[in-house]
Amino acid sequence: MSRAFDRLASFITGVPSAVMLLLLVMTAIALVGYIDANLVRRWFRQPEVTSPGTRLQSSSSPDVPDVERVSLSDSDAILVIESDQFFTPEGATALRTIVERLEALDYVDRILWMDRVPILNIFGFPQPLFPRSESSSSRFEEAKQRALRHPLVGGQLLSPDGRTLLLLIHFEWLFVQSDADVTVRLRELAEDTMREFPDVTFEFFVTGRTPFVVEMLQTQKANSFKFQLIGYSMIGLMSLVLFRGPTAVFILALAPALGVFWTLGILRFFNLQLNPFNDVVLPVLLSLVGLTDGVHLMVQIRRLRASGLSGRESARRGLSQVGLACALTSLTTAIGFGSLSLARSNIVREFGWSCVIGVVLAFLAVITVIPLACTTFLGRSVHVGHEKGLIDRNLGRISGLIDVVLRFSRPISYLAIGLTLVTTLVSLLLEPDERRAGSLPIHSEAAVGMERMDRALGGLEFSAVDVTWSEDIPSDSAEVLDVVAQVDDLLRTETLIGTPLSIRNFLETFPGDGPQAERMSMLELMPPPLKRAFYTPERRQASVSFRVQDVGIARYGPVFERIEAGLNTITAEHPHFTLELSGPAVRRWRQIYQVVMDLAASLGSAAFIIFGVLTIVYRSLRIGLISLIANVFPLAVTGTALVLTGQSLEIVSVCAFTVCLGIAVDDTIHFLTRYEEVRQDAVDEHDAIRQAFTGVGTALIMTTVVLITGFSTVLFSDMREQRIFVSMGILTIGSALVGDLIFLPALLSYFPGRSRATGMSE
Question: Does the pTM exceed 0.70?
């Protein structure tokens, strides 16, 4: 394989015009992606074919009346209002004025709030929950108690303490012109209206489905530019400090920058550019991956150039000597990233494939741009500052560390193996979890509004228990209400479950306390929008909805398990009924464990595939096992840190583990490759290890410093998931340096292989 890279190096440095043509073609393809990716996608798009005789099936059953059901969960946005003055003359006037002006907006279709809920009385006479502004204080107090007793208001649209009120807003999307229309302008209009009521104090937050998505996308877009700018600036600054040569820094930065440019353009052909990880993490990540190989290649070329070789010969020899290691690092990194494609989460799969594409393009940029640039006039001064390099000048001092490691290789080897095993076992204690607000800035309005709803109303998100019964049970049977009531009672035993809602709650508002059969007959008195929201007799279905807080789905695991156990008990008593938990939170609970386990399995698979690749490439089981310890150790340390700090195993955590595995193995490969090269001519094993350290020690430390510096810029992100990702990256990369400079030499020394000079294999 080394001969193949000799030929490749000769071609790249000997036929620069062909390499330049390749770079121009790749750049042109990427430009097409930035300008209009559809120009290429149209060539591969398959025409839609409709089979003759195919008919569209109606989703609605003809025997179910067409009634617009009341829903608390399908609003586009929610205006959360906090105050102690809702049930006062001034407060009532202010509320009605706010609703009136919001509905006057052309893009607001309708608003559901406590003054618009269907009236619940046995005669159907109008009895508004909100009295007129001129009503007395006692009338307002009665109205407050009546509102809290209304099932659709108390605990749903109005908090039990009467201090938090919800306006559920539905948009007419045809007239929405900007993101601000569906977010901040709603609050600004409400705040402007309140200036007319100086004696009333309302606090507003806009949250809900649409603000949640808008805020997430806006933050990603802002962070994408900001942290790329900061990250690249820090990388350039650190490279300048470490190399002490502006020409070398320029050439080094050019390769990963071009790789990122190619990647982000080509991803648009596959519609992958809007992935939240691709938007912010991927550019910085690919820059660092490309920079890692670039540093090793540039350090070698500078050394050869400083020794008196020409720019072309330095580039050829440097690529020939380091190219194999760069190819192996790209291969193993792609394996680590590619393992993410096995996940069930679409976002994670897209991120994995994007990383694979990016790693390949970054490798192509490094092995072409850097050698090509070094053969031009830039190569004349690429070695300037070599003798003043911060790490080169101090490497002799650090070399004493190798002597200590080799002298105590036995205890250090045992320490490496023991720490890896212990930290791996501790890492297994991580529990899967997920929070919806994790993808939002902590102090964003949507996240704060969600937190206020969690605290005041038991959550923003809804789930339900679906109740179905067989044809043997009449839909107006008292047993239906009995089962619904038992489900309602079961849900109310759980403190994390927010205010259950079902036909039982509405029937209890009617006068009388007769048997269930009599109360079921009163269902006909309920307004159809309410009744049909929780009861569909034609399909033999009913539901009991409840609110779920965004406190981490792991906390709901035991809750849902207890509820399911209780539902099984109810089903045993009523064999003609089927009870099932449903809703987004329940689906996440069922899926998050599997998704995280899939990711963990892909991580384990990637580790063993990398072990197999290194074993085959180096033709040594010993090297494969030693590299496995050196690369598992930093991941296990990071996992232990998560356990000790009370963190959970989230999708972003496993993504970070996989990414860090791909990055951490790079320096190990460069060390082992140099070790294998010098081993056959070395005096003994210790001499080979020392030469390997001298050969790659500078690049190892440089890449670690630059990687940590680049990652650290994203620590200032207001996105929790991004901070978790980079924190884990920094800890893993730092631990990997310890593994490569201390544990790896000790293991190679304590478990020596047979010398190749004897002609015997290991």
Answer: yes
